[in-house]
Amino acid sequence: MTHLPHLLRRTPKIFYILSFLFAAASLAPSYWEISAITSPYAEPGNPVVRLTMAKAFYQALLEATYIIASGALIDIAIRIWDKMSIKEQVE
Prior knowledge:
Blueprint: H1 6-38, H2 47-90
Helix pairs in contact: 1-2
């Protein structure tokens, strides 16, 4: 079997870093939008504001989870590839 490129081996770590970046990029605009629209009018702890922030947090968490799962699947595939290449070298 051929060797995997170094960048492909680093792909799971790249996915883990991207998951954090995408979660932050998903949360920040929602927070800014809610703050800009409601801060002059809503009292602290307004249920509508809390619900909207909870939805934004849920969406960011969901996106990050999918990206982390993709990185984990790639990591598993690389480990399987390594085990198969070791078995092939032994034979």
